[in-house]
Every structure is written in structure tokens, then in C-alpha cells.
Amino acid sequence: MSRNEKGTLVRPDPLPASASRPVVTPLSPAVVYASDTPDMLDAQYDGDLSGYTYSREGHPNADVVAARVDEMEGAPHLGVITSSGMAAVTAVLLGLTQAGDHVIGGNTLYGRSLRMMNEDLPRLGIATSLVDPGDVEAVRAAIRPETRLIMVEVVSNPTLRVADILGIAALAREAGVLLVIDNTFTTPASFRAFDHGADIVIHSLTKLLSGHSDVMLGYVAAKDPEINDRLRVFSVTAGTTGSPFDCWLAERGMLSFGLRFDRAQATAARLADHLAGLKGVKRVIYPGRHDHPDHARAEALLKGRYCNMVSFEIDGDRAAANALARGAQGLSFAPTLGDVGTTISHPLSSSHRALSAPEQAALGMTEGFFRVSVGLEDADALCAVFSDAVAAACGA
Ligand SMILES: *Cc1c(COP(=O)(O)O)cnc(C)c1O
Fold first, then answer.
1. Minimum-distance ligand 1 atom for the alpha carbon of 336
2. Ligand 1 centroid – CA 250 distance (Å)
3. Could you report the per-residue pLDDT of 74-104, keeping only the tens digit for each?
4. Fewest Cβ atoms nearer than 10 Å: which of 13, 62, 85, 142?
């Protein structure tokens, strides 16, 4: 008779014993873990025994996901799973800096990362400079004695320019400054950041790695074990550990990541060429195309894996933009990326709406500018949808 059958205790015994094990990682929603004795708990906290204690401090589903991303990125220590990509950015920007420090960011970083650089770090006494990550001399000129880190993305959103990662990495090494790479867009399937000089790698797992738009999680890992620990401690203290269920879903999504990425990328290359041939399309931006301004750099860094994002511009105003979004039958008009379904976004009404007109113009952001995150649709069918949508918008 189990203790619980006596009806005296609330918590039942653990799962029935099984000599075989489940094929799928069990979901562990437990917030607390019971140890046998105070001695055992002491040994756990001292690190002499491994074992979970309280899920904000870590739990099995997070560690399973972290290990999987670690393996893809070649991270030397167990990475930290955070409740969102921005929580990973926050762990780096607030967990590794102090008042008086200076931080350099790429001027095309993700919008919220830019906001943290522009608003939050200065409020806390941390100076920031934003520079073009394609211009290594601009980065060099921004470095100060108190510069602590440089944070960049490999491919910019939504203009798909390619950063001079090798130049910046050499500069960071020379200056003794940490190089932080947000690898969300490129993913380790296209770009292994640690292999290219990154000291810290960040991901929004929300996007391509989970891939189904039903998980919000982030990841951060550092090459240096002491910095890796500081990131974990900050994330635990800030309370931004990812939830077990999100981690469980992310693990499931990541099982098919390689296949999804290959497929979406091959279709993106097809779609880019198809768009370039459509009447009404003024320009197509895809790093794999020879007419891309950074094609040579993309080729060297991404080794033929140019990712699933395509941007393009049509001739037309807001009415034409509305017609294109409406005309893209079966696709979601939504400001995200990396979903199994193709999504279309319009930076002027979403990510870049807060910029001034001259800033928008400087980035080439017009009413006719769209960004496409290519998903898993049949390539011919997808090209046909865009033919119809562009025709609807441009009156062809
Ligand atoms: C989405 C995104 C983030 C933020 O991730 P969340 O999971 O939405 O918090 C950070 N960086 C890049 C490049 C992103 O695309």
C-alpha cells in the first residue's frame, strides 16, 4: 500500500518504477524539488551533488534545451535559457555592466535591444554608442577605455545587410572588449558565432529554433565560464528563467529545425529570384543574390546558407501596401519571423514606425518595403501567391 492510500499525505509517491524509459523528455512542471536531508541539500548548493532545488534556479526542461543549442553553437558550458530573447539581451546588458561602463551596439539591432541601449542603459549610468556594424572603422572609432562590450547581429533586420563580423571580432580581441552576437536571424545552421570570435551568443528561441510561434524563450551562453555563471546568476535573480512547458515545446520544435531551415532557405532563394522578375518590384534584398551589396561578405561568412529572410520593395504608397498584404492569400501579415508558415511584415507600420521620416528614408524604408520570413510552403505555390499579391498591389 502506498502511503497515499492511507489518505494521510497529500503528495503521492513518485511515478511507478519502469526499467524502460520514455522516448520523449518528460515535462517537469515542478517548482520545488525534495532532497533527502539537509546534508544532501548542502551538497547540492555546494555543487558536490547535482540536483534541482527550485525551478527559477534551473529545471530539467531548460537544461535539455540549453544543451541542444549549446551543441549547435559549440558552446563550451551549459547555456542559460531565459523567458524571452529580450531577457537574454537584458542578462548581458545589465548583468555584465556597471555605472561608468560604455557599450557599443550595432545601429540595426532588434528594436527592443536598441531601446535598451538608447533609454535604459543611459538611465543607469551606462553610456552607449550605436554604429554601423558594416563599417569596422566606425566601430574602432567608438571604442573607449571604459568600453565593456560590443553587441551586433550578423544580418540586419529588415534591410538584410551583413555585418563585418571578422573585422569587429579582431577589433574586440585587440581592445579586450567582449563581442556579443545575437544570432537569432542567422541561427547556428548558417553561422556558428563562437567559431567566428564571439565571446557571448544570444538567441531568441521564439523565432526559427522553436519555429512554431507558440513558444517565447531566449538563450545566452558565454565562452568564459565565469561570465557564463554571471549570466546565469543574473537571470535567476531577475526571475527570467524560461517556463518548463515552453522549454518542452521548444525542444520538440528544435527536433525538426535543421530540416525546416534547409527547406525554408531553399525556398527563400527561389522566391527572391521570382520577386526580382515581377513587374512592380523595384528591388529585392537577399544576401544570396549577386546584386546584394554585401554578397561577397555573406558568401564568406554564411557559406552558402543565406537564411530564410527576403525583403523587397514595390512601387507604391500605403494603398498599394494594403493591397499587397490583403492579396497575399493564405499568408499571415504579422511582424514576426521563423514560423513554419510564411509571414509578411511591413516595417513602416510596425518595427520602424517610431523613426522620423528622414531616418526611415536613410534606411530605404518606404511604404512599398516588405520583409518576408519564408516558411515551409511549396515553393511554386508560394511564388504564385506573391505574383498575385504584387499584381493586386501594382495593378499589373
Ligand atoms: C525577436 C528578436 C529578439 C527578441 O526576442 P523575444 O523572444 O521576442 O524577446 C531579439 N533579437 C532578435 C534578432 C529578434 O529577432
1. 1
2. 15
3. 999 999 999 999 999 999 999 999 999 999 9
4. 13
